[in-house]
Amino acid sequence: MDESLIDRKANGSFIEIQGMGSQSATHAGSPEDYTIETLRILTFDINTQDCISNIRYNTSEGDIIRHPVIAGKYDFVFLANEPDDNIIESRLDGISKYADLNSIAYPERFFTSDRIIPMIQEINNVTILPENQGAKLSDGTSVSLLQLKLDRLGVRFDAVLVAVEAEADFDNYFEGITFSGVPDLVPLTAHYNGPSVNHSVTRKFSRDTKYIADTTTSVTGATWAKRVSRVILPANELETKDDEMQAVTFTINMKEKYSPSAKLKISSSPVNYSLPINTKLDLTGIIRESLDVNIEASEWGSTDNEWDIAGNRILNVSETDVRITDFNGARISFWSNMPVVRVENTVRNVGSGEELDANTIFNALSTQSWSPNKDERFLYNPATGAGYMDILLDRPNTIGETTYEVRLTAADSYSLNADSVLEMKNPLTRTILVHVKQEGKRADFVVNSEKSQWSHPYIGAFFADNETGERVISGNRYSYWNTWKATVPEEYRDFIIISSTPSFDPTIGTDSPGDAEDYPVIPNAYKEENGYEVTGKSRIYFRIGLKKENTTGVPRYGAVEVTYVDSGNDVKTRLYVRQGGEADYLMRSGSSGSGYGAKFSPYNLTAKVFRDNPETKQPWININKNDLANSIAFVKYPTQAGAHFQWGLPVSNPELALRAYYPVNRSSVPPWIIDGWSISYISSPPLWSPKEGTKFEDYYEICPESYRRPTDGPVDRIAVNSNTYADQVNQSDWRMSLFQEPMQGDGSSYTSTMPYDVNMRTVLYSSKILENVKYGYYADGFFDRRPIKTGTMLNGSSRETGLTTIAYNGVSLYNANAAFGGTLLFNPETNASVFFPAAGRRWHQDGSLEYAGETGYYWSSSVAPGWTNIVMVENVPRETGTPFGNIWSMELNYASPAPKSMSAHFGYSIRCVRK
Hints:
Layout: E1 2-3, E2 14-18, E3 38-45, E4 51-58, E5 64-68, E6 72-80, H1 86-93, E7 105-107, E8 119-128, E9 135-136, E10 142-143, E11 145-147, E12 151-152, E13 154-164, H2 170-173, E14 174-182, E15 185-187, E16 201-206, E17 212-214, E18 222-234, E19 249-254, E20 261-263, E21 267-268, E22 271-272, E23 279-287, E24 291-299, E25 315-317, E26 321-325, E27 329-336, E28 340-343, E29 346-349, E30 355-357, H3 358-361, E31 374-375, E32 378-381, E33 386-392, E34 400-411, E35 413-416, E36 422-425, E37 428-438, E38 458-463, E39 471-475, E40 483-487, E41 496-499, E42 533-537, E43 540-546, E44 556-566, E45 569-579, E46 600-607, H4 608-612, E47 620-622, E48 632-634, E49 645-646, E50 659-661, H5 696-700, E51 707-708, H6 733-738, H7 750-753, E52 773-779, E53 789-794, E54 805-810, E55 822-826, E56 833-837, E57 841-842, E58 849-850, E59 856-863, E60 867-873, E61 876-882, E62 886-892, E63 898-903, E64 907-908, E65 911-914
Parallel strand pairs: 1-4, 2-11, 13-23, 26-37, 38-45, 38-52
Antiparallel strand pairs: 2-5, 3-4, 3-6, 6-8, 7-15, 8-9, 8-12, 9-10, 13-18, 14-16, 14-19, 17-18, 19-20, 21-22, 23-24, 25-27, 27-33, 28-34, 29-30, 29-34, 31-32, 32-33, 34-37, 35-36, 39-43, 40-42, 40-44, 41-43, 44-45, 46-48, 46-65, 47-50, 49-64, 51-65, 52-55, 53-54, 55-56, 57-58, 59-62, 60-61, ...
């Protein structure tokens, strides 16, 4: 029944009703929040719960309704501003019992800023007095006018968004805001039994909407600020209040950049992701790298002391339940009015109950008594009440999942008593659960040396021309008291930026991490980082980013210097940074003679099928020499192994050597031999490009257009590269382009001790550690984002004594994207660099994998002198060796990089050079 305001009596009784009463000025909202256009009054018999009357009035603010009702006891339900929807109106008109309300919910589309807000109120056990005497409430109070205090069924959201030390063009990237996970229905009662509420609605507000405007802020270091005003959302009443999956997520939309977000909640301890009816949220969001939010939740017009609002003694935290991997961190912001806040000395392993040293489990998190408000990953400013901590794993290095309980405590003071026990005065503690997931094993950060020839520190970082996002540099150290520092040299500070803030990619450290470009590197404003120097303790962890894309067409180079303390001594090393995927010179750039050099690509070669469909399990891919564009490709990242290739076979059956072999073992158990591995012996020198006769180049050159296989001496004759042929070294792409001192001779002894032709005997090259070689891990946006896992292969060193197996380490080890640490060669004068992954090789007799993750083996196009040896087999002399199919190659590691002649039957990597 729809009525206008009436002045009517029923049996001489009525009750006078007025809409919204006076509200608290503190959280009052704005005038449009109080608009009332309709009011439905439902009267229920207090005993039977039958609906006695159901009348809807048209009204406005301040109007007094005289609602007729027979004297007696009733429960009342008041519905204001019900949706203008025929189905809902019909259901409301049809209410016959109170229970009918439990099946009604309003659609989310009626809760927007440009609509009047639906409201509700229940008043139970009201006695209507006869003859205009008014009513008596359940508490015995008699009233002549029933003043309603209606609850809005929606939520009001207001925010101030602030960016601290943002990029100059930050505003150009800001596109607006988004609310996701918004409920599609708002039930009228707590006992709702209608269709399920789905958290599937997304609402976007562009930057030019009337709800977003420029503003000013007093936040230190702020360079950008926006105010969001009066966004109305449907209420989000949750049965399980700590269910993160049903929380409403607030996101700041940044074009082509990482878009920070936060889950809305009214309480952090305990966590409560509900947004109850009549809630007003006042949010302050500070954008540093993640989105730090301080949400003050209040009733829309009054105060609920169970929520996180101002009080006498405060310790509010942004999160009390976080998940991290061993590659990322969780930033938790907190607010307090206490003089001191710190993480307690121990954390609890929830599974075992064991109390463990906090700074052993998490990196530099628990502060010391002489500086309780500050450590490398913790800071609290009592003057502002704001603080943060970055929770990053430190020493634990075990695959699996563990939950720790971290205790954050605020107090009036901290001090050591006479027994050196830390005492807290008037403590207030919040507990934070940290769930840690680790899928691989991290390596120690130990710089290469004579004593540590096979260590795996990070040695550099790579960015494609259009990439600037985070590269994560990490390595285990084992003492909270051992400090480290990373510095960008002055000449590269306009190019390279670093930060100690951990990655906030939630999936980094898994086999499916997020895109590094979504996580730009921004200095930690809490620590007042300047972008070119960061410090830390224990585990080395920082991120490298770049300030802009490279549009020059040639690679840019730079460096980051790292110093760490080991046994009381400073150890210094340099990480080499490269931006650009074009082939480039390294040591020399001349066209001939002693200054000769070639441009090496930074990527290994692979089959296009392996690159585009890495989950394929084919042992090899046939290469179509007549359609290389659709057969061959460079890998996407420098650390990726690519494929293994045999150098070449007799040209009578070239297709047998035109195969790209899978980079790793396709199963974790032997046998690992390749069925159909080709062995055909060549009966004359297989010259790549002779002046006359067969050119093996025509059959086996598979580098992409504009590229070729690198030389190691001349390609029109046998290359000796030593003795009277020493000048041939000047024709070697490998030796001249990459090494400070180009080597002479052969690292394999066979061509010097057992030459097939004594006139082409080589000098034995004695391998040694070289000054322009580094060995370890390379942060290219692929390797540094994935867990380092372990595979199993045959131990190549045991082939003559009885085969055994050995482990090898890398990332993505069971698909064709497999990537490894390896060798970086650099120019100490220009800081130019190029990286070669240690992809191992395939044994020449059966194609089994060996030395993966240890050494990189790379083909040249030059033929080496042959060798032979006479051995006795059952008293019969037998000639062994490789008289003709002996090919120059390059073996790369830290301990013994060397040019070596090897059988063309091996499976090696190919690294191409520009023609």
